[in-house]
Design brief:
The protein is 32% helix and 22% strand. It is α/β, with parallel strands linked by helices and 402 residues long. The structure holds zinc ion.
């Protein structure tokens, strides 16, 4: 038995609207987009959802978060020093009484607001099977923070993750550990994520040295006394190391120098911009448009509740619309959907709605527009919650079916 969804319009990708059609999927895969009458005649036993004045869209991708930090909400103060903020989290996380990660309220909120795929950094024990049982498409990346480990044991590192790796950053992960993670991820055909060019202290440390970062590493018992500045930006340092390729999420990239653009484009990586977290830390205007002009396919993420008050991609998109009013809405929609699937190599199977694609989708209420721009604008500006969200053809959130 399949499922047929009828809405007023289908936004099958950022530039294509289908009128007068309904979508059918079976076994998690979209098999036909055709007139509703044709589908119900042909597939009489199917489950049918009809929504008036609604639009059917691909699900959103949250390309960066830390679900394990949900307990940080409202608890971590930011005094203007990123390093102090990071250490405050680490003091609790690795203290005598670390909190249990409780990702479920955020996952429920994500499904309600149309997010179907989430890429997550983790370093505490996470209830991965239970997270997957919610239905969300979940990719856990074990975060590595070992600046003083120069002889990593590949077998031991391989056992640490349920899926793949996140190299925490160039200033907290040794070259050898980072490369071991990259090699394992490449061998498994899986992505690797890293925070990169997030702040000025990082850039100074990679180029020469930085006292604040040395203090952080000493606190974490990971100080490498032999560190010598590389005379390069973090992007060039990681690029020349062989860490950056098309299976890479480079998170933040808040700062750039001219040559970085060449290395970013050459690697084919996916930059991830976390708009609300970026605002929280008060960084200068994000260079998302510079990256887009260079041809990079930027994705969006929420980061964690230590620097955000929700994990809601609608709010991230709204902030992008406000901060970058000249960005075409179709381009913004790609940032929300298909771009974040590229390092997973899933962008050919998810992120758009057409025959043969996986049924990761959301139905949004009260959509009157007819063009892609009108529909995207109404969803991003006007909606709070989907009527229905499905992942792999399974309904994971449902408000009302007529
Ligand atoms: Zn992060």
């Amino acid at each position: 038995m399949g499922t047929i969804i009828k809405t007023r319009v289908i936004l099958s990708d950022s530039r294509t609207v289908l009128h007068g059609k309904a979508l059918r999927f079976a076994d998690g895969v979209i098999d036909r987009i055709a007139p509703f009458d044709t589908l119900i005649r042909r597939y009489a036993g199917d489950k049918v959802f009809e929504f008036e004045n609604a639009a059917l869209l691909p699900g959103f991708t949250n390309a960066h978060c830390h679900l394990e930090l949900n307990w940080c909400k409202g608890k971590i103060k930011y005094n203007g020093s990123f390093i102090d903020w990071l250490q405050a989290i680490r003091d609790i996380k690795f203290g005598s009484d670390p909190p249990e990660p409780d990702p479920f309220p955020s996952i429920e909120a994500m499904l309600k607001t149309g997010t179907t795929t989430v890429i997550d950094h983790y370093s505490m024990p996470m209830p991965i099977a239970a997270i997957r049982a919610t239905g969300i498409r979940y990719f856990p990346l074990r975060e590595m923070f070992e600046f003083d480990n120069h002889t990593p044991n590949e077998k031991e590192i391989a056992l640490r993750t349920a899926y793949s790796f996140a190299v925490h950053s160039p200033y907290t992960t040794s070259r050898e550990v980072a490369l071991t993670c990259r090699q394992l991820a490449d061998r498994w055909g899986r992505p690797l994520s890293t925070h990169l060019s997030e702040m000025l202290d990082e850039i100074e440390f990679i180029k020469k040295s930085n006292e604040k970062i040395e203090w952080l590493l000493k606190k974490g018992d990971a100080y490498n006394g032999g560190w010598k500045g590389q005379g390069k930006t973090p992007v060039e340092y990681f690029f020349r190391m062989g860490l950056l390729n098309s299976r890479t999420y480079a998170v933040h990239l808040n700062y750039w120098e001219k040559n970085d653009i060449f290395f970013l484009v050459k690697s084919g990586l996916t930059p991830v911009f976390c708009p609300k977290s970026h605002r929280y830390f008060g960084h200068p205007r994000h260079p998302i448009e510079t990256y887009q002009r260079a041809g990079l396919k930027v994705a969006l993420g929420t980061d964690s509740l230590a620097s955000n008050d929700s994990l809601n991609m609608l709010e991230e998109a709204r902030l992008v619309m406000k901060s970058f009013p000249d960005m075409p809405l179709a381009r913004l929609f790609d940032c929300l959907t298909i771009n974040g699937l590229r390092p997973l190599n899933l962008h050919t199977r998810l992120g758009t709605l057409s025959d043969g694609k996986v049924a990761d989708l959301a139905v949004w209420p009260n959509i009157q527009g007819d063009t892609p721009d009108e529909i995207i604008h109404q969803v991003l500006k006007g909606a709070d919650e989907t009527l229905l969200t499905a992942v792999n053809g399974k309904t994971v959130h449902l408000v009302d079916a007529v």
